[in-house]
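Lab notebook: predicted structure, single chain.

Context: the supervisor wants predicted structures on file for every construct in the current expression panel, including those that have not yet been purified. This is the next one on the list. No modifications to the sequence; it matches the entry in the shared construct table.
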Amino acid sequence: MLYGAPDEENVMNDPMTILKKDHADVRHGADVEHGLAREGIVTMNKMVDEPGFGATAESLLGGILHHVREEETEILPALKAKLSTTEWAALGDEVAAARTAGAVPATPAAR
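Prediction complete. Output recorded below exactly as produced.
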């Protein structure tokens, strides 16, 4: 999981074209979810000392967890099934390189 990274779209866009079925819907859905996450983080940062902070944080977490589940249980398995072992490994290397460069933050568990 690339954890809402600004460059997630760049790292995954080419491989996602392999999933031709509903690619536009998947891409649009991901873009909407990434935008909502970014907006939620901005809102949450403004509310640190305000009532409703906890509810805002829980809502943001729920959206992110939904996105992660969708990636891990639907999108990535479908993509892996369509890629060769070499292509799948190369995609993993690209994600790792982006993380090393700071373009893709590590998942919360890896921090």
